[in-house]
Amino acid sequence: MDHDHSHHDHSMHGAASMPGMGEEQMRCSMNMLFTWDYRNVCVVFRQWQITSELSLFFTLLGIVALVAGYEALREGIRRYEAATTKRAESVPRDPPEHADEPDPDPESQSEAGAVAENTPLFLRSGQNRDDITSRAHAIKAVLYGVQNFYAFMIMLIFMTYNGWIMIAVSIGAALGYFIFGKRTTAIKDTACH
């Protein structure tokens, strides 16, 4: 039995008619230079591909919303930090290590008593400033990680080097700052977004 297949044509002449092959399935366009061409641009993922003017329009709207959402996240973190600082300041300090020794500063005793009286009962039971600040710090560390992941994803979106997408990122940042950044300065404190 002869197994020589050299006479068979293994080319893909009919590839365009096969599902998932040919012109119908367009490859992601990866540009390392600035461009305005939007056709076949993949935004971060292969599944997020711009194939028409309509998909470009919805992509740009989505990017504006994503970047504005980043500014909302930043504002939420700022508010959380302010609330935990305020809460920690409202809780009385730990009692001195040597509780039987008198505090040399009688004024601090009266302040501690006033704070203890003004602190809601549910905050007094078993909580002290150190407990609150260490829990808040752990939560802030997680939020910091989420914020950095978000910022780097925005950076990757920007790095498509597509002018339309870059403009959408900038508009989203401006819109997000306009809506959520009323209490902050316009100066950025991070290098990446």
Automatic annotation (TrEMBL):
GO cellular component terms, semicolon-separated: membrane
Transmembrane segments: 54-73, 141-158, 164-180
Subcellular location: Membrane
Compositionally biased region (Basic and acidic residues): 84-101
Bilayer topology term: Multi-pass membrane protein
Region Disordered, residue ranges: 84-112
GO terms assigned for molecular function: copper ion transmembrane transporter activity
Pfam family, one: Ctr
Keywords: Copper, Copper transport, Ion transport, Membrane, Transmembrane, Transmembrane helix, Transport
Claim: Transport is one of the keywords in the record: yes
Family statement drawn from the similarity comment of this UniProt entry: Belongs to the copper transporter (Ctr) (TC 1.A.56) family. SLC31A subfamily.
Protein name: Copper transport protein
